[in-house]
TrEMBL record:
Belongs to the sigma-70 factor family. ECF subfamily. The lineage of its organism: Bacteria, Pseudomonadati, Bacteroidota, Chitinophagia, Chitinophagales. It comes from the Bacteria. One of its GO terms (biological process) is DNA-templated transcription initiation. The chain crosses the membrane at residues 187-205. InterPro entries: RNA_pol_sigma-70-like, RNA_pol_sigma-70_dom, RNA_pol_sigma70_r2, RNA_pol_sigma70_r4_t2, RNA_pol_sigma_r2, RNA_pol_sigma_r3/r4-like, WH-like_DNA-bd_sf. This is Sigma-70 family RNA polymerase sigma factor. One of its GO terms (molecular function) is DNA binding. Keywords: Membrane, Sigma factor, Transcription, Transcription regulation, Transmembrane, Transmembrane helix. The keyword Calcium does not apply. Residues 130-180 form the RNA polymerase sigma factor 70 region 4 type domain. Residues 26-92 form the RNA polymerase sigma-70 region domain. Pfam families: Sigma70_r2, Sigma70_r4_2.
Length: 207
């Protein structure tokens, strides 16, 4: 995994110049340790893979603006750590965490109708928004996502089917997942804020 600083410097210089082969070498050299670090904290393979892909996608897209002061791995590690922390903050109250919501409801002794209706209605609203988000994707991105989720094709199979590079497939999947996570995070945060307001209002009315 570890190469000399000179080699890292040479690889990074080629990446900044737009050399895709150098970027592939960078990815193969450092993707596994970055993934291992993220997975160690999240314990969710899919989310750890997404964050790892986003780190390398980001470094490719912003390569001309990035200045690396220390080692290349330290930069990747710091970037992955920051993305992981942001992910944790954004997903602190996921809509699927129904046990947490129901525990709050039980503690507040709210009417059963609130306990039965809030989580499911919130999830239905989020699912509807996800469907709309997918429908609005660029055509090729939508095809890649559907081939991955509906047919179970692997990245190489999708690339061969659509006559595009595996990197393009990874890029599309990473962007789709990022957009969907943003949609879920935005809506779940809104629903949770409304839910807390409901709890506070009910508490005040009980005085």
């Amino acid at each position: 995994m570890v190469k000399s600083i000179q080699n890292d410097t040479e690889i990074w210089q080629l990446v900044k110049e737009g050399d895709r082969a150098a970027f592939d070498q960078l990815y193969h050299q450092y993707a596994s340790p970055v993934f291992a670090m993220v997975y160690k904290h999240l314990r969710n393979r899919s989310d750890a893979q997404d964050i790892t892909q986003e780190v390398f996608l980001d470094i490719w897209e912003k390569r001309n603006a990035i200045t690396i002061q220390s080692s290349l791995f330290n930069y990747l590690y710091t970037t992955a750590r920051n993305r992981m922390l942001r992910y944790i903050r954004q997903n602190a109250f996921r809509p699927e965490s129904l046990d947490f919501l129901r525990q709050l409801l039980d503690e507040q002794h709210l009417p059963q109708t609130y306990q039965d209706s809030y989580p499911e209605s919130a999830i239905r609203s989020i699912e509807s928004s996800i469907v709309d988000e997918i429908a609005g994707l660029p055509e090729q991105m939508k095809k890649v996502y559907r081939l991955s989720t509906e047919t179970g094709m692997s990245i190489p199979e999708i690339a061969n089917h659509l006559l595009i590079s595996p990197y393009t497939v990874k890029n599309h999947l990473s962007k789709v997942r990022k957009r969907l996570r943003q949609t879920v995070s935005r809506l779940s945060s809104l629903f949770f804020a409304l839910f807390v307001l409901l709890l506070i209002t009910a508490r005040l009315l009980s005085f």
